[in-house]
Amino acid sequence: MENKDMRCSFCGKPQRLAKKLISSPNSEAFICDDCVEICRDIMRQTGESKQLGKIELPSPDEIKKELDKYIVGQDDAKKVLSVAVYNHYKRINYNTDCADNSANKENFVEIDKSNILMVGPTGCGKTLLAKTLARILKVPFATADATTLTQAGYVGDDVENVLLKLIQNADYDIKKAERGIIYIDEIDKITKKTENTSITRDVSGEGVQQALLKIIESTVATVPPQGGRKHPQQENIQIDTTNILFICGGAFVGLDKVIKNRLSATTLGFNASVKKVKEEKLEDYFKQIQPQDFIKYGLIPEFVGRLPVVVGLKDLDEEALIKILTQPQNAIVKQYKKLMEMDNIELSFEDEAIKTVAQKAIELKTGARGLRTILEDHMLNVMYSAPEDKTIRKIVITPKVITNNEQPIIIREKSEEKLDAVVNE
Fold it and tell me: Pick from 135, 138, 115: which is nearest to 55 by CA?
């Protein structure tokens, strides 16, 4: 029988509101299940987690082969990323080995961390590349948007909140989080708003870059456990960022013009020679990126110096988008087929229909990110009504479904002929 006086000695929660109330041996004190979870998190935050050993590290070639299963194209970028990530975690294993073996300390060589900067148009796969790398290496991963960050003391998120997401994804295991990967997207949005010195603070541009410098390089950061602003009365989490790999990504719209201007720079005078630069594709310009191009664009030199590995990603053409729709293990078309298969319905896409989806994504300039949106829009009526009609055995998506919102072809159980009548809207 419930005792109305029984309540958690820590938070005061009554027994009727707690899933479980654990009593002390003498039944004078009680603790609820929520407080037990909080205590466990506090123990993890204080670094009570077990020491981690060396990371099982695949070779760069093996990393790229795994990336090939999920990401179409971008071969050059995948090679650069595979080598950079391999060297980063090889560095961690080397430091771990030297710490465990005193004999290795005599010949110890300090290896610097090489963070990564990815440059490419929207929807080309920057976020997916970073996320897939973390899955291959089985390390915690967190993604953050640079546009929400501001300099400390101003409205917005502190840069330390980027680290909090990683800690949360590592289940508050600090040692595990200290080997994770953080992807900061939209990094081009925190460039300096003007090249000229201003009397007002640039709190969402240069101020954020200054705040990111220490955590990207190496520091013991203080992170508020619930996010938000830090204040002296709260318990904070300490995390060392020395072995955290930071990958920054951005579209850097207009960077190609900065590179083109540098390549076609002229000298002054009557006999000055003018360099003629032929018109090139965006990815061709990205292959010629120099640190001064990012500085000209608005990144501060110290920030550029902390991102030594630069990866240029290509814009996706029609052929690449078609492969993204059909080939990877998590291809969107395969996902829709599996969803309909669960309702005992075979879903088929005509080749021209898939091609039309790719062409529409190119027109909208949304890249691979827009493929699912386009299909969701045109598959809505089918996904809504088909499960109710138990006579449907096959649905064929034609190009007109995508271009004119016409109904797909339906093949029913009692007839093998194609019917034009379709799922009711």
Answer: 138
